[in-house]
Design brief:
heterodimer, A: 438 residues, D-Maltodextrin-Binding Protein, domain 2, 2 domains, five-stranded mixed β-sheet, four-stranded mixed β-sheet, 13 strands, B: 296 residues, MetI-like fold, 2 strands
Chain lengths: 438, 296
């Protein structure tokens, strides 16, 4: 037996280990990885991919679901090691962070050969803002849009003798109905749980306040409109008809509503189809309405909305890894995802309301197979006064800190007024730091 | 100076030895030692995003030591250890001694006590979350109380500690049982002929004889308790009003590094935790000379 030097031994072992991870497909086709976070939308995404690969048989797209709770941790780690999926969903909160670091492919000129002004012609301003980097260029093709509505239990309204929420409903009507339902049935009224997009954000904007100002450099939690709305929203948990935060942490507003213990809660349009499918026992007993409006909105120059109406709208987009090895093919795929044809497939699958203007109503198709009909019109009508989800490039930094303060306010460890000042300061400081840093 | 002189056969053998341990050494270096060095470095840096760091000196540490949330998390971790380690060990020893006696279905009992270890921790936490539920939980039903176990600041750590003890007691008991079975019966016989009672036997024979097992269980349990993270992550969330009163150092690290993206600060928390574990372990190794008997 020959002598084996130490170093050779190490090298051999290392080579052995490396060989284990070097497997790859070898069927001559281009394999793309498409990462999303919502299992419910997987069939819709796969239908779109199938339509693309039918025209491009040399491409194979593998749709992979990574749960929301670990999506961003994994994507960031992948970005650092240059192993990002070829195509992935991008969320507004994170887009600036990824785009500013050059992780996302610039798709501004993607449709230049199709039509000049393609984006402006076919997508709303909110959709395009959601896809824009700090430099004003597009880093994603708009995918969908959403907003939030009031879900209510018709049976409880009937029992309490209260009229169903209509277009003129205000916060006062909601409080009044909650009290009556609680008195008549013993069930909770409006479930005001700690949340931003499905909680206080809409209230702040309805009341003439703002979370971030127009140029997104300063927060407005402690401005008159914001403060009043936050006091109202957080204060609801003091009422008998609303459970407190300790209850919501353990039970969740959705679970409480669907198990018929509460009469109303705010839900995102993206969850409604799943709710209909999962709760057949509630057929005929529930419906949706526009969010109630603020009775006396504060009128300031910064106020975006003056009649007390607002809802928060967000939209996702399809992005491609800037340094991906198969970037050309990936770009061609997301170019297809932004066409009317692909957006119709997405809408009809029920995955989400398509971002492509004029195809929104295709989402209704997915609801047709169910006997029970809810008032989907209100979702589409709410887009008229929808407000873009508030975010800036420092969002990933301030979001969890602001959340901590809100939690402390709910816990009673923090006065609401000083808490709002603190939240404002956190956002302003982190934003200034971020702007100075880059 | 002495030079090493090995025969050709011995050299060959040594080289093969290196080949055999190479996977472990490489693994240890790549997966443990190098990341640890990097963590020390990043604790002195600000994370700019996507693995880009800027050196900022001891800023993270001064921020950390002046942060009340951090001290609260340190206290929560210590309190969690106080709740889980002594209680867990006494229970484990008690269970081990019961399993060592002559009872029917001994094998069945051993399996039952060992079962929690086979369950996925996430599933365990989910089930306990429902048991502790303030409104509909079975625990409040049985006790006839209305305690918000997970969301009340004064019971939140206790609730997590109960789950932790429940999950670990079977495993610790099996380790101690192995120690108990190695005690020669003759010692007890001689002891009872000398007129010693059961309690005296326990302290003069049982405890000294299994003290090495007790010591290793103690070290393992203490380290695991100081690093507690998964149970808190599963049983609570950010909207929990009692979050600040129940989060451990490792949970704070997770939130700083991965939720807020501040990995420099997160690394500083990790270094602090490692230092604490190191200190406690050193104290234990010094203390073992006083009570652990390796040869009788």
């Amino acid at each position: 037996m020959r002598k084996i030097p130490r170093i050779t031994a190490l090298v051999l072992t290392a080579a052995l280990l490396l060989a284990l991870c070097g497997c790859g497909a070898s069927d001559g086709k281009t394999h793309l990885k498409f990462q999303i976070w919502d299992t419910a939308q997987k069939p819709g995404m796969e239908a779109m991919c199938a339509a693309y690969t039918a025209q491009h048989p040399d491409v194979v797209i593998d749709v992979q679901v990574v749960s929301w709770s670990e999506y961003w941790t994994k994507l960031e780690a992948a970005a650092e090691s240059n192993t990002m999926p070829d195509i992935f969903w991008m969320h507004t909160n994170q887009l600036l962070y990824y785009a500013d670091f050059g992780m996302l492919a610039d798709v501004t000129d993607l449709y230049d050969d199709v039509e000049s002004g393609y984006y402006q012609n076919h997508f709303s301003e909110i959709s395009l803002n959601n896809a824009s980097g700090s430099d004003g260029r597009y880093y994603g093709v708009p995918k969908d849009k959403d907003n939030n509505v009031l879900v209510y239990n018709k049976e409880m309204f009937d029992q309490a003798g209260v009229a169903y929420p209509d277009d003129d409903w205000s916060w006062d009507d909601m409080v009044d109905a909650s009290q009556k339902i609680y008195d008549a049935t013993g069930n909770y009224g409006y479930l005001a749980y700690s949340d931003e997009q499905l909680g206080y954000w809409a209230y702040v904007y309805q009341n003439g306040g703002y979370i971030l100002n127009a140029d997104r450099t300063a927060a407005g939690y402690n401005e008159p409109g914001g403060k009043e709305a936050m006091e109202f929203y957080i204060g609801m948990q003091q009422e008998d008809w609303c459970p407190d935060q300790t209850f919501f942490t353990q039970n969740g507003a959705g679970a409480t509503f669907w198990s018929e213990k509460g009469a109303m809660f705010m839900e995102g349009s993206w969850s409604l189809l799943g709710a209909l499918q999962n709760n057949p026992h509630m057929d005929g007993k529930w419906d949706i309405a526009k969010l109630p409006k603020a009775p006396n909105p504060v009128d300031t120059p910064e106020s975006l909305d003056k009649d007390g109406r607002a809802c928060i709208s967000n939209g996702l987009c399809y992005s491609a890894a800037a340094h991906g090895k198969k970037l050309d093919v990936a770009l061609d795929v997301i170019k297809y995802f932004g066409t009317e044809e692909a957006q119709l497939i997405q809408g009809e699958s029920g995955a989400a309301i398509p971002a492509y203007l004029g195809t929104e109503e295709s989402w209704r198709v997915a609801w047709e197979q169910y006997d029970y009909k809810i008032n989907l019109d209100c979702i589409f009508e709410q887009f008229d006064y929808a407000i873009q989800i508030p975010y800036n490039s420092a969002s990933p930094r301030w979001k969890s800190q602001v959340m901590d303060v809100v939690t402390q306010i709910y816990a009673g460890n923090q006065e609401i007024d000083s808490g709002l000042d603190k939240m404002t300061e956190i956002v302003n400081t982190e934003t200034a730091k971020k702007l100075a840093g880059n | 100076m002495k030079t090493r002189k090995l025969s050709a056969a011995a050299r060959r053998e040594e080289n093969w030895g290196w080949i055999m341990v190479a996977p472990t050494i490489i693994g240890l270096f790549v997966l443990n030692i190098w990341p640890f060095i990097q963590t020390i470095y990043t604790s002195f840096c600000e994370h700019l995003g996507f693995g880009h760091y800027r050196f900022i000196g001891i800023q993270n540490y001064t921020d950390m030591f002046s942060n009340t949330e951090f001290w609260k998390a340190t206290w929560n971790t210590v309190w969690f250890c106080v709740l889980t380690v002594p209680v867990g060990m006494i229970l484990a020893l008690f269970v081990a001694m019961l399993l060592n006696t002559k009872v029917k279905f001994k094998g069945g009992f051993r399996t039952i006590f060992f079962l929690p270890l086979v369950c996925a921790p996430a599933a365990v936490a989910m089930v306990w979350q429902w048991i502790f539920n303030g409104e509909y939980g079975i625990l409040n039903q049985i006790l006839g109380t209305n305690i918000q176990w997970i969301t009340n600041p004064s019971t939140a750590v206790l609730a997590v500690a109960i789950v932790s003890v429940w999950s670990s007691v079977g495993y610790d008991a099996v380790l101690l049982l192995a120690g108990l079975q190695n005690i020669p019966k003759t010692l007890y016989e001689a002891n009872s002929i000398d007129g010693a009672g059961k309690i005296r036997q326990f302290f003069t024979i049982t405890v000294p004889m299994i003290s090495p097992s007790l010591f290793s269980v103690l070290i393992m349990r203490l380290m695991a308790s100081m690093k507690v993270y998964d149970l808190i992550y599963m049983m609570s969330d950010e909207t929990n009003p009692a979050m600040a009163d129940m989060q451990s150092l490792m949970y704070l690290f997770y939130r700083s590094s991965f939720v807020a993206g501040d990995r420099g600060y997160g690394s500083a928390i990790v270094i602090w935790t490692v230092s604490l574990i190191l200190l406690v372990t050193l104290v234990q190794f010094w203390g073992q000379k006083k009570w652990v008997t390796y040869d009788i």
